[in-house]
Design brief:
By secondary structure, this protein is mainly alpha-helical. The protein has one domain. The protein is about 65% helix and about 0% strand. It has five helices and no strands. α3 packs antiparallel against α4. The chain starts with a helix and ends with a helix.
Length: about 90
């Protein structure tokens, strides 16, 4: 199953898809202020999880700081891309 997924992803040309669907190259990148916001949100949510001693927190909430750190480091935020598509912003 994993080899099938890897073979499908290796054939998929992400850069071609990027050039076709996004005329503005900066549409995928978040600004420095937004990246700083993602980093601060990840830190605060991680501190909240740590202060709760990991007892009362559902496991799904551990994923959120990871997504925020990914968005802060790379500047790519799928939520922003989807929101821009919904509201037709460029």
């Amino acid at each position: 199953m994993l080899t099938r997924i890897v073979s499908i992803l290796s054939r998929y040309d992400f850069m071609r898809l990027d050039r076709q669907h996004y005329t503005d190259k900066n549409m995928l990148k978040a600004s420095k202020a937004v990246r700083f916001f993602f980093l601060n949100t990840a830190i605060v949510s991680s501190i909240i999880i740590w202060l709760s001693r990991y007892y009362n927190i559902p496991e799904l909430l551990y994923i959120i700081p990871g997504f925020f750190i990914f968005a802060a480091v790379t500047g790519i935020c799928p939520g922003m891309i989807i929101a821009k598509k919904i509201f037709n912003e460029t």
